[in-house]
Amino acid sequence: MKARFLHTNLNVTDLERSIAFYEKALGLREEKRKEAADGSFTLAFLGDGETDYQLELTCLKDHPQPYELGENESHIAFRVADRAAAHALHQEMGCICFENEAMGLYFIEDPDGYWLEILD
């Protein structure tokens, strides 16, 4: 058995807001979209333009309330080429939620409360 990573899914409450956040904060771009035939959900697949791995954002039409994220220990990590520039952008956006200088990392929070780890 050999498997390879394809995507990670996050459920979001406002698809366009989330796409705009991921584009500005991380440079991810929408690569494809799928609408349910009955209109009950929309999937947007975002990519980094360098790998095949995608972030799938799912917007359920009948779930406008915030998602319960528990203790939010799960996260997705991103490597950036220029940590100082990324940090400045994220600070300007007001989305930095945790920093660990000793480990050389910090986390940003997306509009739905998901934490994303930023590494260089």
Written overview of the protein:
The chain is an alpha/beta fold and 120 residues long. It contains 2 helices and 8 strands; from the N terminus they run βαββββαβββ. It has a 4-stranded mixed beta sheet. A 4-stranded mixed beta sheet has the order 5-8-7-6, with helices on one face. The radius of gyration is 15 Å and the shape is globular. The protein starts with 6 loop residues before the first strand and ends with a strand.
Rg computed from alpha carbons, rounded to a whole number of angstroms: 15 Å
Which ranges are low-confidence, i.e. pLDDT below 50, for 5 or more consecutive residues? none
| Total E-strand runs | 8
Straight-line N-to-C gap: 32 Å
Secondary-structure element string: EHEEEEHEEE
Mean pLDDT: 95
Largest sheet: 4 strands, mixed
Strand content: 35-45%
Report the structural category. Answer: alpha/beta
Task: Record the strand order, biggest sheet.
Answer: 1-4-3-2
The residue fraction in helices comes out at 10-25%
Number of distinct helices: 2
Shape: globular
Q: What keywords describe this structure?
A:
4-stranded mixed β-sheet; 120 residues; alpha/beta
Short précis:
By secondary structure, this protein is α/β, with parallel strands linked by helices.
Which secondary structure elements does this structure contain, and how are they paired or packed?
Layout: E1 7-11, H1 15-26, E2 29-35, E3 41-47, E4 54-60, E5 76-79, H2 83-93, E6 96-100, E7 105-109, E8 115-119
Parallel strand pairs: 1-4, 5-8
Antiparallel strand pairs: 2-3, 3-4, 6-7, 7-8
